[in-house]
Amino acid sequence: MPDDLSLREDVERELGWEPIVRSAEIGVAVRDGVVMLTGAVDSYAVKRAAERAAERVRGVRAVSSQLEVRPAVSAGRTDPDIAWSAANVLAWNALVPAERIRVAVSEGWVTLEGTVDWRFQRTAAEDAAADLAGVVGVTNLINVSPPVPVEETKDEIETALHRNAEIDARRIIVEVRGDCVTLWGTVDSWAQRESVERAAWSAPGVREVANHVTVEAGVAVN
């Protein structure tokens, strides 16, 4: 596992590799594998891109983002402007049942509420709103309420993990109770941890995922 100094350098390089991120504007500190990002960026989309860049670096155990979003004055937009744009971008998104989602905006912060059938619909709605000019943050309160009962969820998730070339499925334990999934085990990177969670969310009927998988770079399995 890389030491904190090496990890910091890797995170800084990854931020510099991300096209929309101005890495010089972002401070990086690392302690025991936990990365802290500080500074100010001009959009929420840039903030998310920086956080995701840090998360995918091997050896990162967690990311604490203290990044502030400060939209450029020239791009300043009123809350009604943002709400109108959000409603329209959701309506045009083929993955989102826009008629089931409500949008509220306060001081540039977007709140999404409603109910969808799948987690990917919830995520698509958040991604669409997050990329709008003038948005400083998104609170996603959309509920996932699947139309069918959960059956054989554990087997489906475990099969998906075995199909994933990036994950050693032998190190992951999947527990299912009703429509709630709990994940345990270890992986080599934060990106792998996210992949495990995505596999769980992709199973039909899942309403909640508790991800207790830890990042332990360098762990070997015989």
Structure description:
The chain is an alpha/beta fold and 222 residues long. It folds into 3 domains: 4-69, Histidine-containing Protein, Chain: A (2-Layer Sandwich), CATH 3.30.1340.30; 74-144, 2-Layer Sandwich (Histidine-containing Protein, Chain: A); 153-215, GMP Synthetase, Chain A, domain 3 (2-Layer Sandwich). 33% of the residues lie in helices and 28% in strands. It contains 6 helices and 11 strands. Strands 1, 2, 3 and 4 form a 4-stranded mixed sheet that branches. Strand 9 (180-187), helix 6 (190-201) and strand 10 form a beta-alpha-beta unit. The radius of gyration is 19 Å and the shape is flat. The two termini are 18 Å apart.
Kindly name the structural category: alpha/beta
Distance between the termini: 18 Å
CATH-scheme architecture of the largest domain: 2-Layer Sandwich
Level-1 CATH class name of the largest domain: Alpha Beta
Number of helices: 6
Following the backbone from N to C, one meets helices and strands in this order, namely HEEHEEHEEHEHEEHEE
Work out the count of structural domains.
3
Low-confidence stretches: none
Biggest beta-sheet profile: 4 strands, mixed
**CATH topology (level 3) name of the largest domain:** Histidine-containing Protein, Chain: A
Average pLDDT rating: 88
Gyration radius from CA atoms, angstroms: 19 Å
Outline:
The chain is α/β, with parallel strands linked by helices and 222 residues long. The chain is built from 6 helices and 11 strands.
